């Protein structure tokens, strides 16, 4: 049996001790008063029963606050694999130095032309490579559960854990990098907190599930880590995952970043074609940082891969089984369920007994003309 702790244990112990001392002191004071008036034994028995009720009520509340959990085997087989995608959607992921055959953004403009402009091979946006790899991952993973978290000006859980692969494909097809006007610099660390929360929650619900983490980024960091509220501790996530990979897109030589609004606006001449460096007024250059991604991969205890050439993911998925086929396996999983209903029931009965005791006391007082009509 384990505990999930509805209230922190130290706080629970403190208030339980305070209430226990209060109950004991009250009972002692009432008994002392009864001795002075030489009350019958029945009055003392009532105090003893009230003391037992109050102590049992405190005990039930402590157990509920600790929230015991019991391990049960799921009666229905569900996918035992969960895949978490941490996707960098900052403006730098639009830099034009992806060398593979990527997948462009889906959709059409009002005039029927493609939403995404046409680029030459070898000069595609890095994010096109991300689309290509996520599509391949979905195709080869099969019916597993996916969770998508993006990191741009802030971390966002785009798609909570789901078996709806189509939702993930739709999101990656029609999504794009952030609007440069909303950009607040590049940092994967902005997605760390959301990732930690969903992994921790999943681990508590199904501890024996296989969790794989895939990170898609160019590794560029333009935000001072000291300006973040709390630096990411990537190593702390390793305990929750059993594999995955960190994928790098882009080159160290760097490339320009197209200003997408330029291609979508009817008045494109009034907008710059590329994101500009505010200091020089010239097109800004984004450079991939493989060392940063290698460091993150090392802390997560997963592999690092340079995916900028558009290579197949077979070499990645092979470490999780031939062509990633083990991602398709389904098996019963152990779930931890809160076991507090019996204790809540006992507490309700005790509260009912306490209410009944007060009602009987009230009726006795009426009969003795202490309370009544005057």
What does this structure look like?
This protein has 374 residues and is of the alpha/beta class. The chain is 38% helix and 18% strand. The chain is built from nine helices and 15 strands. The chain has helices spanning 9-36, 41-66, 126-141, 165-174, 192-205, 260-264, 290-300, 314-317, 341-367, and strands spanning 2-3, 68-73, 78-79, 81-88, 96-98, 124-125, 145-151, 155-162, 210-217, 243-248, 255-256, 285-286, 303-306, 330-331, 334-338. The strands form five sheets. A six-stranded mixed beta sheet has the order 8-7-4-9-10-13, sandwiched between helices. It has a three-stranded antiparallel beta sheet with strand order 1-2-15. Strands 3-14 form a two-stranded antiparallel sheet. It is elongated. Residues 262-269 and 322-330 have low confidence and may be disordered.
Layout of helices and strands, plus pairs?
Elements (H helix, E strand, L loop, with lengths): L1 E2 L5 H28 L4 H26 L1 E6 L4 E2 L1 E8 L7 E3 L25 E2 H16 L3 E7 L3 E8 L2 H10 L17 H14 L4 E8 L25 E6 L6 E2 L3 H5 L20 E2 L3 H11 L2 E4 L7 H4 L12 E2 L2 E5 L2 H27 L7
Parallel strand pairs: 4-7, 4-9, 9-10, 10-13
Antiparallel strand pairs: 1-2, 2-15, 3-14, 5-6, 7-8, 11-12
